Every structure is written in C-alpha cells, then in structure tokens.
Automatic annotation (TrEMBL):
Belongs to the SbcD family. One of its GO terms (molecular function) is exonuclease activity. PANTHER family: COMPONENT OF ATP-DEPENDENT DSDNA EXONUCLEASE (PTHR30337), NUCLEASE SBCCD SUBUNIT D (PTHR30337:SF0). Heterodimer of SbcC and SbcD. This is Nuclease SbcCD subunit D. The lineage of its organism: Bacteria, Bacillati, Actinomycetota, Actinomycetes, Kitasatosporales. Residues 267-355 form the Nuclease SbcCD subunit D C-terminal domain. It comes from Streptomyces luteireticuli. Keywords: DNA recombination, DNA replication, Endonuclease, Exonuclease, Hydrolase, Nuclease. SbcCD cleaves DNA hairpin structures. These structures can inhibit DNA replication and are intermediates in certain DNA recombination reactions. The complex acts as a 3'->5' double strand exonuclease that can open hairpins. It also has a 5' single-strand endonuclease activity. It comes from the Bacteria. The keyword Lipid metabolism does not apply. InterPro entries: Calcineurin-like_PHP, DNA_Repair-Maintenance_Comp, Metallo-depent_PP-like, Mre11_N, SbcD, SbcD_C.
Length: 389
C-alpha cells in the first residue's frame, strides 16, 4: 500500500506578518497532484491542520477545498487534530464527511477504532490518535498517570488490543501528534510540556508497522517505522535549513516499510544573516540571498542610522532585524556602586552612553547637550530647595 504522510499544515498562519495563504494553496495543489501521479492509496495528515482553534474564514475555505479535491480523485484521507486545532470544531460533520472517504479522527475515545483500507495483500488498519492533552484525557483512556507518555501508552494499548483481535497478517498504521524522544524541535512548535514531561519514547509505538507523526516541523526519521513528515512550509527562521517534504511510504505485504521524500513547493527561500551593516551591504557572496525572506542580526557596536531601510535596498524581503553588538566583556564582579565611586554626574552620563554604544562615548556636540541637561537639573533642584525653606 502506498501512503502519503504529511502534517502541520497550519492553515491561516502568516510568516512575520507575510500572508502565506497563497503558498498554502500551492501546497494543497501539490499534495493532490502528488497523490494522483503516484497512485497513492491513502493520504495521512498527522495534526495541526489549522494554526489556531478558531481559524480565519479563508483558512477554512482552503481546508474545504482540500477535502473536495482529495475526495474528487478518490484517495481516502485519514486526518487527526493537533494541539493547535480545536478537536471539536475540526470534527464537526465527521460522520457525514466519512462517506466521501475523508476520515477525521478527533475524539480520543476512538483511538482503538481504525479506518480499515485494503489492497491486494489484505487489510491495513489506520488508527488516529489526536493530540492527547493529559489532564483532559487521562480518565477517558484509563491512563495510569496524567502525563504525555502515560496517555499515549494507554491509547496505544487500545490500538494493540484491537489489532490483536483482527485477522493475522493485518497491517497497521498509527497517526499521532506528539513530541517523541530523538526528534529535533524548532521555534515554530507550541510548547506541550504542560501536563507532564512532553517527550515520549519511540517504543510507545511498538507493535504497529508505521507511525506517522506530526507536531515537529522538521522532516525526520526517529527509526525505520517512526517518522515525522514536518510542516510543508517554514513558519520561523529556525527552519531556514529545513528541506520541506512529505513522506511517500510503501507498506509491503509483510509490513515492511520503505520511504522516500517528496519535496514541497518553496514560496521563497529563507536566509539568516549576521554581521556589521556595511559588511552585509557590500559582501558579494550575499547576492544569492537578495530575493530571500531574510532575518538579519547586526553586530555593529553602535546602532547604525536607519538600518532597516538601508538593508531593504539590497534585501527587499528582509522581515526581521536583531541587534547583538560585539562588545568588550565587562567586569561582572564590579558592583554598580564601585563603578560610580569618585565619578562626576557628567562622567557617569558619558559612561552610560559608552555602555549602550559598545564602548563609543559621546562626541563633542553630545557632551555639550549632556552638560546643558545636567546644568538645567541642578538649577531646577536649587530653585526647588530654595522655595522649600
């Protein structure tokens, strides 16, 4: 059986205020085209269909379009809710939608009830484990504790019990939305540590032929049978080095797994640049990044004038600007009082300017402004004290 494994669509999400709906629509078109061209038997979506519980209307419309297009080419689709989704909202109409071959699995109580598809070698049972918030599902699943590992283990116990009652040779696939030990995270995933230790061991999925995971945005192999597809688009600059793909999985007659990566469309490459402003504007090696979405970290010891505008002239798609000036290390043991002892107000003010500029103190004009300001304060103080006598 040929399976297309994807996850973490995050429909409705933007990238540093850049609307990604067009890129997400291009991905959906690519997904449908890939399923058709590779004669896929099932499409799996392992959670985080939407970016938030109440998605914008445009995202809902795109999701509806995706379902219609998948149903239109006759490819069964199994989909679970993730920690970004509202399970109840995503699951509305699931029974009716199932008649079109779209199987939404959003209810934790249904973990042990599979979608059964068949090929020339027999049945394949697909079990959908939606994101399991420990505090909310512990009692439903009869878990021994309110932690991620415990509730997933309880869900998998239901999967294994159902599978044991099926005819010998029935192959099995689990969809789950979780943080599995050995996976590499990025800045894009929402923290799921509330409710206990977030990571669960890959052994949790023992006894099934393939575990199609969602949640982490990097495509990765935990082991031969446990894989993350990753998100189809980058949602933070921490994903700049990701290759965005889906897994095309071949499930053999004996349950053996082979998988290859299918690249997703890239709306615009990402680049993370670091250095002094003048160097970044002049370095010919950076020409290849001029059309990228760019994050720039400036290391100038003194904050340059109009840095964003100047960067935008060379890198018109710069989206993020960070300042991390290179400065000489300070004596961490010297107390504030020690540093001020014996210094005049003028010297303290000039030292402060030098501190925030990475060692560059005020010029003559700025010193004159500081002197004038300090003198004005002294006059005001003297007049106030005189009025109080």
């Amino acid at each position: 059986m040929r399976i297309l494994h994807t996850s973490d669509w995050h429909l409705g999400r933007s990238f540093h205020r850049v609307d990604l709906l067009g890129a997400q629509r291009a991905f959906v078109e690519h997904l449908v085209r890939t399923a058709r061209e590779h004669s896929v038997d099932a499409v799996l979506v392992a959670g985080d269909v939407y970016d938030r519980a109440v998605p914008p209307l445009a995202a809902v419309e795109l999701f509806d379009e995706a379902l219609h297009r998948l149903a239109g080419i006759g490819v069964p689709t199994v989909m679970i809710s993730g920690n970004h989704d509202s399970a109840r909202r995503l699951g509305v109409g699931a029974g009716l939608i199932e008649r079109a071959g779209i199987h939404l699995r959003t209810d934790p109580a249904g973990c042990g009830t599979p979608v059964v598809l068949a090929d020339e070698h027999g049945d394949v049972a697909f079990y959908g484990l939606p994101y399991l918030e420990p505090a909310l599902v512990k009692d439903t699943l009869g878990a021994r504790a309110a932690g991620h590992a415990a509730v997933l283990e309880a869900a998998m116990d239901r999967v294994r019990a159902d599978l044991a009652a099926r005819p010998p040779g029935t192959r099995s696939v689990v969809l789950a939305h979780a943080f599995v030990t050995g996976g590499a995270a990025s800045d894009s995933e929402r923290d799921i540590t509330v409710g206990g230790v977030a990571a669960v061991p890959p052994e949790t999925f023992g006894g099934v032929d393939y575990a199609a995971l969602g949640h982490l945005h990097g495509c990765q192999t935990i082991n031969e049978r446990v894989r993350y597809s990753g998100s189809p688009l980058a949602y933070s600059f921490s994903e700049a080095d990701h290759r965005k793909t889906m897994w095309l999985v071949e499930l053999g007659a004996d349950g053996g797994v082979t998988a290859e990566r299918v690249d997703c469309p890239v709306p615009r490459p990402l680049a993370r640049l670091r250095g002094r402003l003048d160097e970044l504007l002049e370095d010919p090696a950076l020409e290849r990044h001029e059309e990228s979405w760019t994050e720039v970290t400036l290391t100038d010891s003194v904050r340059p004038q109009e840095p964003m505008a100047r960067l935008a002239r060379r890198f018109p798609h710069v989206l993020s600007l960070v300042f991390e000036p290179d400065r000489a290390p300070e004596d961490a043991l010297a107390s504030y009082a020690q540093r001020l002892r014996g210094r005049s107000d003028q010297q303290i003010a000039e030292d402060f300017v030098a501190h925030v500029r990475g060692g560059h103190g005020p010029d003559e004009r700025e010193r004159a402004v500081l002197t004038e300001a300090l003198d004005a304060v002294r006059v005001e103080r003297a007049e106030h004290e005189g009025a109080g006598r």
